[in-house]
Structures are given as C-alpha cells and as structure tokens.
C-alpha cells in the first residue's frame, strides 16, 4: 500500500468480491493513513451496518442499495440511481396515481410523515408544483416526484397500488 501512496490518499474504494479481504484492506489503509475516507463493499446489509458503526468506514451493500430499486422498477415506477448523502442512499422516484390508489385524498404532509419521503413535485391537471404545500391532496391522475431511501419508496409504491 505504501507503494501506491496510501499515506497521501484522501479516499479509498474497496470492492473485491470477498468481504474479509475488503475489511482487511480497509483496516490496513486506515492504520497507514488515519485520515483516509474508506468506502467498502460488503455483501451482507447487517454486516455492512456493523462495520460502519464499529470502524467508521462507509460500508455499502450492493444488494441493500439495489433491491428496493428493482422492486420499484418491477412496479413500472421511474427511479433514479441512488446517491449517497451522509452514509444514506436516496433516489428520486416518479409515481402516477391510479384511479384506485389508497393514496388519493391524502395530503402531502401526511405522505411525507407516514412514508418518510420528501415530495419534490406534484403534477396536477398538467400543472407542476415544486415542493407543494403540505395541505395539497392527491387526486387520481396526479403524478408525484419523491426523494427518499429505496425502502421508503418501495413502501409508497406498494400503497399506491
């Protein structure tokens, strides 16, 4: 590691297919450079969380990040690739509100609180309202854009059926 200048590196991304090897590399890098920002790929979600809490590495599970996105894609919902902010993954999703949606009549504030999402846009009768007021309510045919973690988006998609 010294040969590649790990002591001067600001960040290191470790993504082999072996969690044990990834952790060993991360620990060695941190020992050589305590200020390095380490991002490590870990297969298991719980193990990734434990590593993040114990060592302070940004531990990311590909399955944990992608599973909710696959589920929403299967429900014909447009979802962006996740971005990471302070160790959490967020995506932007666009949902069309069908005639029989359980979300019809619910306010933006209620949806944000219940599903832990941020409603970025409401499109109603062809008019887009960015960051709609909390008392706006959903109607059949509306479209909403929400920013949230993948599992929260999945819960909202499930309720929208």
Number of separate structural domains: 2
CATH first level of the largest domain: which class?
Alpha Beta
Structural class: alpha+beta
Element string (H = helix, E = strand): EHEHEHEEEHEEEH
Question: Can you tell me the CATH superfamily of the largest domain?
Answer: Regulator of K+ conductance, C-terminal domain
The pLDDT mean sits at 88
- List low-confidence stretches: none
Largest sheet: 6 strands, antiparallel
Counted by DSSP, the helix tally is 5
Indicate the CATH topology of the largest domain. Answer: Alpha-Beta Plaits
State the separation between the terminal residues, measured CA to CA. Answer: 52 Å
Instruction: Provide the helix percentage.
Output: 25-40%
Radius of gyration: 20 Å
Number-wise, the strands total 9
Overall 3D shape: elongated
Query: In CATH terms, what is the architecture of the largest domain?
Result: 2-Layer Sandwich
Proportion in β-strands: 25-35%
